[in-house]
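ok so i was messing around last nite and threw this chain in just to see what happens. nothing serious, just curious
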Amino acid sequence: MKKMSKKIAACAAFVVILAIILMIFSFLLSPVNLGKNYFDKVDTISRICEEPDNSIDVLFIGDSVAYSSISPMEMWKNNGITSYVCASSGQILPVSEGYIEEAFENQKPKVVVFEANAIYRKNKKAANSSAKFESLFSVFAFHNHWKNLANLVVPKTLSGSLTDNLKGFVFRTAQKPLVKTNYMRRTEKCKPLPDGNEEIFERIVDLCRQNGAEILLVNSPNAAHWNYEKHNGIQKLADKFGITYLDMNLMKKQVPIDWEKDTRDKGDHLNYYGAKKVCAFLGNYLIENYGLSDHRGDESFNKWNEDLETYMIFAGSADARYDNLDGELKTKRTFEI
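result:
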């Protein structure tokens, strides 16, 4: 009996010690306590902390559709808008809520733009529990961030910029064409939201309004996973909360996506070429409807102009290639109807 008690006590002590160690590493590896250094490619919430306080006018939230479709440097180039994409692959609403909360700690965006594809992601109990677990033991959320410790001792001239000069956008020029012209067939049917998502979204709306930010719902062109039933579901949600909703899948004139050239994976995600078209429309829309300022002539935003120079090196090369794509695509075209 005594041996059993000792084993139980030892196991309990091990669990307690492990929990303490995890919490310590979670503290050390969190974005704030690492000195807000450079983080992984799609871990954008960590890197928005690196931006000067209250310098971001528009916050974009969502899953991989968001970080593939929204290029803040395009909107800076065309409109002088400062924006940031806090998106992650497969993002569910509890994670979105957490990202927005963290972003509000050092930013006061006038507009929060929510890519609505994430609202239809199932918020399973396991996923929700995982999000809460990672919130407590964030070492699991930031497990690759040991690299940032090196940034504390390696000179900046060697380790590179600690900020993300793409502001959360993932720059891809790959093309896998799709022709699917009927994916937005009009219907009166409405696809229900996954259980619990409306309640979480309501909290997100309240959070934005409490922080003085307007919220805008959008859908970027997505031929693989979007349809009119989902459109109706999001429109119903937008109407309930009095939110503007833009579905670019229905705006072919304003956002003229060429599904042969502007997608990197047969209609699921846009590439850089498609993102340019989304941002050309969306940048103008934000300027015209939300009273945003053009910061391009403001010296305090000179870092944005420096980042734009870097961005344009890649963009210029990609744009030059775009005009010569027809011949290449004919040799490797895979259409889906």
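not much to say yet. The chain has a mean pLDDT of 81.
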